[in-house]
Please model this.
Amino acid sequence: MKRKSILEVIVVFALTSVIGWFTGAAFQQWGLSFEAQRWIGGAIFIAVSLFIMALTHHPWREYGLTLQDWRLSFDIGMTGYVARFIPVGAVFLLILLGESYRSWAGSAIIFVAEVAGIGLLLTILNRQAVTDPSGQLRRSGARKNMMLLGGLLLLPIVLGVVLNRSPLSVISTVCWQLIISGFGEEIRYRGYYQSRVNQEFGRPYQVAGIRFGPGLIVASLLFGLVHATQTFNPLLGQYEFAWPWALFTLAGGVFFGLLREKTGDVVACTVAHGGLDAVGEGLAIVMGLTL
Model:
């Protein structure tokens, strides 16, 4: 049946949403802490994603779960890390100004910043491809980039310990953002959803030398939708949708999806997604900001 991949990912998305409702209600009934809820819930979603991929009987590398050229992907991920400073910086600016990034006005500002970040990412990657067509120079910088990312991840942790600003919460947040939010969401949205649709429709389009297909669009729409439903759980009597949140996260999904298509794996998008969010939210806790 034509378009069966799209139907499949929509069904899986609905299924995981229902699982989220039940686990969220159960966690509250059990009296679990916020930290325990997000760690256990995140682990469940990672397990479900891997299970669904296994059921399709496609090679793991088709879902981006490969380390074949991880050094080059890691370097490209750090390029994405730099470009992501634009939208993440916009979020911090809004918070400092007392504006909610979940309001329509705040969301519109971040959406524009996300688009600017995509433009910067494509510009940098296009220039790097011209000056380093084989990717050899970028591969050689993997060790330096790993040390740089490691230092950035340690920054909020060290500050939290030295300044005694909820150090355990900072450590948990940094690790959760990197492992669960970063890697977990990337294998689900860019790994499974995006790849599954591409398996049927291919990647007939191209922008700045990056080939992509309908999978990027579908995965980005679902990425925005899942953020809109963060405030919706009928089992807890929550019926509101955070539509403004969906606006800029949809653009963020396009950003991460382009990294997935550029590298062929989820390493780069995990670095750009989880790596920067981990540092950003960790620093927000140290600074006493509410995200």
Q: What stands out?
A: Residues 4-287 form one domain. The chain has a mean pLDDT of 94.
